[in-house]
Amino acid sequence: CRNIYIYIYLRRFFHLSSSAGFTLSFFDRVFNLLWHLSLLDFVNLPQNLLHDENEYYRGIIGPGEPDLWDLSKNVPALLINGERMLDFPRPLSIHITFSGELGLKKAPKKVEFDEKIRAILDKPSKGIIVFSLGTVSNTTNMPEQMIKSFLGAFAKLSDYTILWRMEGKVKEAKSLKHVHLLKWIPQKDIMKLPNMKLLIAHGGYNSFLETAQAGVPAVLMPLFADQKINAMRAQRFGIARVLDKLHLSPEIVLEAVRDVLEDESYTRRAKKLSLMLTDKPTTRPYSTLNYILKLATSDAKYFTLQTAQKLSFIEFYCLDLFAMLGVVVLILSIDLRL
């Protein structure tokens, strides 16, 4: 369902690789249109993945049964991994729910870190900076220029404790006692600490969501896929600065990091956004989840998304109505000339 949702709803407004934020110029919209119409496998990844999944599904159920395309048109509800407040404005059915809206608002439990992490976190400093490019990116292949850019910036931040998720070895980092290279970082737990000051990340949706929920400002360097548009969203909310991975230097990285650390407006907006996400009004705990479970077990087959699924391209954009209005205007203009 996640793939179907992305293709039907998201791509009608913003392409996943778009560098635009909420406001699109004419050229931004041209870029999105060209990418939307592109036949590249990566661009149409959600649709192409569904074709592969269909082949696998057919091998299990055999011929003659409805495929995943047909089944997707009869789903009673869609559960989306994310927060409605962080998403782009769009027309959504009442049966589409964001998973960030589920659950009780429990006070965070005290996290117990292992001895190595705890020893690092307990070192006296102005605060903690976490640098992680996610679990998908292979950090052993990080370009040398990128490594030097961040190392050069980190060398000027000796009053902070920096945790860098790095699978490979960086010899130059050994001389920086405040920089700690780790193959794995409990990022979500560390971001809840009161002395957590900044996240440097790639702009993956999980990192974007964790940043917003924890109320921690960020410096984001998108690498591929939806990371660029996530980074632009964070920048629009005023909780992040965005770096261009192709134009890096120690000075550029340091300027962005210091700007976020020293300008209190980033932290203030991040805390405000976190409060908005954690203090949403709810009438009953797990009410949405109960509703979805009821739909799954109910015989009320009319609770589906069929109407939205069956809208054609012309109907969705009302092109037939605009064409009719154009014809009427054309006829009236001809009559006035006569």
From TrEMBL:
Keywords: Glycoprotein, Glycosyltransferase, Membrane, Signal, Transferase, Transmembrane, Transmembrane helix. One of its GO terms (cellular component) is membrane. PROSITE patterns: UDPGT. The chain crosses the membrane at residues 314-334. It is a single-pass membrane protein. It is found in: Membrane. Its EC number is 2.4.1.17. InterPro entries: UDP-glycosyltransferase, UDP_glucos_trans, UDP_glycos_trans_CS. GO terms for molecular function: glucuronosyltransferase activity. It catalyses: glucuronate acceptor + UDP-alpha-D-glucuronate = acceptor beta-D-glucuronoside + UDP + H(+). It is an enzyme of class 2 (transferase). It comes from the Eukaryota. Its main location: membrane. Belongs to the UDP-glycosyltransferase family. This is UDP-glucuronosyltransferase. It comes from Oesophagostomum dentatum (Nodular worm). The lineage of its organism: Eukaryota, Metazoa, Ecdysozoa, Nematoda, Chromadorea.
